[in-house]
Amino acid sequence: MILAKVTGHVVATQKCDALRGSNLLLITALDDDQQTMPDRTWVAVDSVGAGMGDVVLAENYFALNKEQYKAMSVVAIVEKVFRDVRE
Questions:
Q1: Which positions, given as ranges, span the membrane (predicted)?
Q2: In the chain, what percentage of residues exceed pLDDT 90?
């Protein structure tokens, strides 16, 4: 799983049957300081109703039939991240 921020929406006029009715989001991974990492951006299937600017938890291969499709899926909207500052 990765922690990411929703940075955009993807509009597809034609989708495979498994994606019909699904929203597609552009998500960008967050680093340890919760800053976006522009070189780590993906399209993910939204299964929780996330919106622009939301911090989300995303997982590979969760939303669709693993044998037929490979997709990243947004599985949670994150309210707060607690981190132990001791190093």
A1: none
A2: 57
